[in-house]
TrEMBL record:
It comes from Tenacibaculum caenipelagi. Residues 1-19 form the signal peptide. Keywords: Disulfide bond, Endonuclease, Glycoprotein, Hydrolase, Metal-binding, Nuclease, Signal. This is S1/P1 nuclease. The lineage of its organism: Bacteria, Pseudomonadati, Bacteroidota, Flavobacteriia, Flavobacteriales. PANTHER family: ENDONUCLEASE 4. It holds the Pfam family S1-P1_nuclease. One of its GO terms (molecular function) is nucleic acid binding.
Amino acid sequence: MRTKLLLLVSILFISVSFAANNEDIWGSTGHRATGKIAEKHLTKRAKKKIEKLLQGESLAFVSTYADEIKSDRKKYGKFYTWHYVNMPLDTRYEDTEKNPDGDLVTGIGECVKVLKDASSSVEDKRFYLKMLIHLIGDLHQPMHIGQKEDKGGNTIQVQWHGKGSNLHRVWDENLIDKYDMSYIELAENAKNLSKEQIKVIQKGSVIDWLQDTHQLTKEVYKSAEAGENLRYRYSYVYFPVVREQLQKGGLRLAKLLNEIFD
């Protein structure tokens, strides 16, 4: 009995630790798809400057950099809060209590500021460009704009096809991984949009884009009950939404980069 109890406690500890360390990560496939989509919509001038700054590495390749550096908390810990915004479901960003350590909006703003500053070093510009590419992806994952009390859905435990997960992870990784497409396949199969449709998506500011995602956040919170086993029906309803968010992120990232580098 004692052995079983210790095993149960160990499993619980591992699960909680994983959830804590897995906060705020739009899965790597999603980030890379967003980067790939953005590349298709860069101007020639912006693309050339970005390729030089990234030393030939693609937007897709560097899109996961901001998550990779999380493992070095001592050096990069100050950037941790940049991956998300905690806000109640019934408020707008401008009316919320701001995190004194910064958030997704202020992080994006700082990246843009450094990249536009002619006095910024090449090293700083390269670093903050990688951060910006990632953060715009995060901006379009609805659970990155979630409630503080449940850590953006990380503490809302659900099952994914009979296996333990949480609502945040379902949207970060499970929905995309279950579809089993590479980031290139996801990008190449993005919806065909007219120039006018693209302009509508790209219109507005970063805060406007956040509010757009937050409308979806409200829907996601209603989409599942704690402990519910989410299966094929959930994918059928929400994977098209994920694809739309990846495309929006790519198009808006391209707009922002064109404004900075063109």
